[in-house]
């Protein structure tokens, strides 16, 4: 009665459901590095290096726990490079009586898995992914009959379920569910941002870096220096460092952007959390404990917990509730090609260049850079939603379709017609100037609307709103915006629209 237990690259948790009840005498755990998965979008070199290194370390841990592991490296000459053939090969050699796997994070793979009993001729158990705090059924039940699926209300339910930051009467600690009003500050000058941890490179990492250099030279991103944690122990060190050193200021400066500072007070845990090295509840509990011990203020702790217990679970819920139709949405009919400066070609827009630079160097940029710089620019200029999604999926080390798609299509591009966001996250240069020091380094001027030195975001912002006026004029969350536009008068309006069309033309020619 031996079972083949398949672990996917983002399921590197000893608590994963596919390992539950494992029989060390008979079962075999299988992990494989697949060229088809590494190339179906051209993932950032650091993302591939992170995942292969973490997979190899995880396999070593399983072996040292006494389990039989079938690990197929990318450069194994027999490696066929895709799931179906690798599983067939394993079944032919091991002759298991069943295949056990935890559900994947991608609709495309789930469809494949559903075919596996037919393809392989043995039963296939597809188990729930218990690493999340809510199930698909719970989300569907919460969503049922609601006109709008607002994260804030879902978040409150999950907080109640896990009794996080509640007092003895089940009321939110401090009296409010959300302390965002105290957050969203630009960075104070003179604040010293704590240094990040650098992990020692194991022989596994060194071998993987060499492999990635050789096999993926045409993929985006800089591979070295490689600073990622690749084991659970290292990921826990990262988490503890964040909780002790950075969490106290996380809330206040969550939305700030500073030139040359890719990380600020962000946790950098998404890659570890999404790959299974950390679990969401332990992270939320660690943050709550810091608050209860008086080590971090409530605005920071609540804000941080909301990201994980609220946003992350909600985003996953949306993905599984609406797929596969969700992936085909393009509500604003955005079709312009993605400019080459998303891949690092020169642009004079400092904010965009800086965000792309962070992305290229670290396979990371923080939420506001993703949303209000590269996302906002793509929204305002109507860049093809599929191309934008592919970019986000490829370039970030934490990107998997379940989390990338609703964030990109829904939150950043308003392409789902308002399922995720109640209004588009569109902003002019004014917002970027308020939240960052980027404009100080830019040849464009955020205070200027038209002319050669005008910040491109300014005219594009108004042009976007006017292009989609029918959709947005009646939006209750945008009451003053169109009245401001109306007050501009015809001449100014025309000048703005002319400026926008010149800018869009420059974008097409990649000379912005
Ligand atoms: C266009 C766009 C694309 C994105 N793509 C991804 C993606 O592919 N993978 C991904 O994990 N996150 C994605 N996000 C959400 C968010 O930007 C990242 O989770 C965050 O930047 C990761 O950095 P951090 O760990 O330092 O996060 P922190 O700022 O420290 O936040 C803490 C944690 O909260 C969670 N979180 C916060 N916001 C979100 C959110 N909107 N959705 C899901 N989880 C959230 C993450 O697990 C994160 O690690 C995207 C956001 C946008 C706007
Ligand atoms: S001036 Fe405009 S383009 Fe330049 S950094 Fe500021 S917002 Fe970005």
Strands across the major sheet, in which order?
3-2-1-4-5
The major sheet is characterized as: 5 strands, parallel
Counting H and I runs of at least 4 residues, what is the number of helices? 19
Heterogens: flavin-adenine dinucleotide, iron/sulfur cluster
Approximately how much helix is present in the residues?
40-55%
> In percent, how much strand structure appears in the residues?
under 5%
Pick out the low-confidence regions: none
Instruction: Give the averaged pLDDT, no decimals.
Output: 96
Number of domains: 3
Distance between the termini: 63 Å
Care to describe what's here?
By secondary structure, the chain is mainly alpha-helical. It has 3 domains: 3-127, HUPs (Rossmann fold, 3-Layer(aba) Sandwich); 136-199 and 230-322, Serine Threonine Protein Phosphatase 5, Tetratricopeptide repeat, CATH 1.25.40; 340-508, Orthogonal Bundle (DNA Cyclobutane Dipyrimidine Photolyase, subunit A, domain 3). It is built from 19 helices and 5 strands. It has a 5-stranded parallel sheet with strand order 3-2-1-4-5, with helices on both faces. Helix 4 links the parallel strand 4 (98-102) and strand 5 (124-127). The longest helix has 28 residues, at 481-508. The chain is globular. The protein starts with a strand and ends with a helix. 45% of the residues are buried. The mean pLDDT is 96. The structure holds flavin-adenine dinucleotide and iron/sulfur cluster (SF4). Flavin-adenine dinucleotide is lined by residues 266-270, 273-274, 304, 307-308, 311-312, 315, 366-367, 370-371, 375, 392, 396, 398-399, 403-404, 407-408, 411-412.
């Amino acid at each position: 009665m031996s079972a083949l237990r398949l672990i996917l690259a983002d399921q590197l948790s000893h608590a994963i459901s596919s390992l539950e009840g494992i029989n060390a005498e008979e079962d075999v755990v299988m992990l494989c590095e697949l060229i088809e998965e590494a190339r179906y979008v051209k993932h950032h070199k650091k993302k591939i290096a992170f995942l292969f290194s973490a997979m190899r370390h995880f396999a070593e841990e399983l072996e040292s726990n006494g389990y039989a592991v079938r690990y197929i490296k990318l450069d194994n000459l027999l490696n066929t490079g895709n799931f179906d053939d690798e599983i067939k090969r394993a079944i032919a050699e091991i002759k298991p009586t069943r295949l056990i796997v935890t559900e994947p994070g991608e609709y495309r793979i789930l469809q494949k898995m559903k075919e596996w009993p037919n393809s392989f001729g043995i039963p296939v158990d597809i188990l729930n992914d218990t690493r999340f705090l809510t199930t698909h059924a719970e989300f569907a039940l919460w969503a049922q009959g609601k006109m709008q699926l607002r994260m804030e209300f879902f978040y409150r339910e999950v907080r109640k379920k896990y009794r996080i930051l509640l007092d003895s009467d089940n009321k939110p600690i401090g009296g409010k569910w959300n302390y965002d009003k105290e957050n969203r500050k630009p960075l104070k000058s003179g604040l010293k941002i704590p240094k990040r941890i650098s992990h020692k490179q194991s022989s596994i990492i060194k071998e993987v870096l060499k492999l990635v250099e050789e096999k993926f030279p045409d993929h985006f991103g800089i591979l070295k220096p490689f600073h990622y944690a690749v084991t659970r122990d290292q990921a826990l060190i990262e988490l503890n460092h964040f909780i002790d050193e950075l969490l106290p200021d996380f809330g206040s400066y969550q939305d700030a952007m500073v030139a040359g500072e890719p990380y600020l007070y962000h946790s950098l845990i998404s890659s570890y959390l999404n790959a299974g090295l950390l679990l969401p509840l332990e992270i939320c509990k660690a943050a709550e404990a810091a608050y209860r011990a008086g080590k971090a203020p409530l605005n920071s702790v609540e804000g941080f917990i909301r990201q994980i217990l609220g946003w992350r679970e909600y985003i996953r819920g949306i993905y599984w509730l609406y797929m596969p139709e969700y992936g085909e949405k393009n509500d604003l009919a955005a079709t312009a090609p993605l400019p080459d400066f998303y891949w690092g070609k020169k642009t004079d827009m400092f904010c965009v260049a800086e965000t792309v630079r962070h992305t290229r160097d670290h396979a990371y940029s923080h939420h506001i850079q993703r949303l209000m710089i590269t996302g906002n620019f793509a929204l305002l200029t109507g860049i093809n939603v599929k191309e934008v999604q592919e970019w986000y999926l490829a370039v970030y080390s934490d990107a998997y379709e379940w989390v990338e798609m609703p964030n990109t299509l829904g939150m950043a591009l308003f392409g789902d017609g308002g399922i995720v966001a109640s209004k588009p996250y569109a902003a002019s240069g004014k917002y970027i100037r308020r939240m960052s020091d980027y404009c100080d380094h830019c040849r464009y001027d955020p205070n200027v609307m038209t002319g050669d030195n005008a910040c491109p975001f300014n005219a594009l912002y108004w042009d976007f709103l006017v292009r989609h006026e029918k959709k947005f004029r009646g939006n209750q969350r945008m009451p003053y915006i169109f009245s401001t536009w109306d007050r501009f008068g015809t001449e100014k309006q025309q000048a703005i629209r002319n400026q926008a069309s010149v800018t869009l033309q420059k974008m097409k020619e990649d000379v912005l």
